[in-house]
Known about the structure:
By secondary structure, the chain is α+β, with helices and mostly antiparallel strands. It has helices spanning 18-25, 43-58, 66-76, 103-121, 127-142; strands at residues 6-9, 12-15, 80-85, 88-93. The strands form two sheets. A two-stranded antiparallel sheet has the order 1-2. Strands 3-4 form a two-stranded antiparallel ribbon. β1 (6-9) and β2 (12-15) form a beta hairpin. The longest helix has 19 residues, at 103-121.
Amino acid sequence: MAKFLAVKVLGKLQPVDEVGEAVLRRFKQREIVVIELTKPRNLQFHRKLMAMLNIILANQEHYTSIEDLLAVCKIRIGHTRKIQTTKGIYEVPESISFAAMDDIAFGNFYDRACNWVCSEVIPGLERKGLDDEVRVQLQEFGGNEPQPEIGEE
C-alpha cells in the first residue's frame, strides 16, 4: 500500500510532492483504485475539546474532574468498545489520542460531545453559546490567533 499527501484543487485530489506523483505514475489512466482518506489532526482541535470540557466542569455540579466528565461523555455518545465477560457486557471508553483518531473522526467526536453536553449535562444550553464560550477561552489562553473550526474545509 502506498501513502502520500494530496491536496484538493478544483474538486480533484492532486499529490503535493514528487513522492505522490511517483506513486500515481504506477497506475494506468482510468485505472480504478481504492483510496482511504484521512485528514491529519490539528493540535488546536484537542485544545478546543479541553477548553469545552473546562467550561462545562466549571458550570455544573455533578462531575468533579475533567477525566470523569470525558469518560462519561465517551460512554454516553458511544465512543466505546464492548467487552463480553462472564458477568455481562462492559463498555470501555475508547481513546481519542492523535494515533487513534484523524481530524475527521475527531470532528465527529467533538460534535457528538457538544450535543451530549447541551442535552444531558447542562440541558437547555445552546450549542452556539457553548461554541462562543469556547472561542473566547481559546483566545484568552492562545493569543489573538483565530481558532480553527472542527470540520472546516
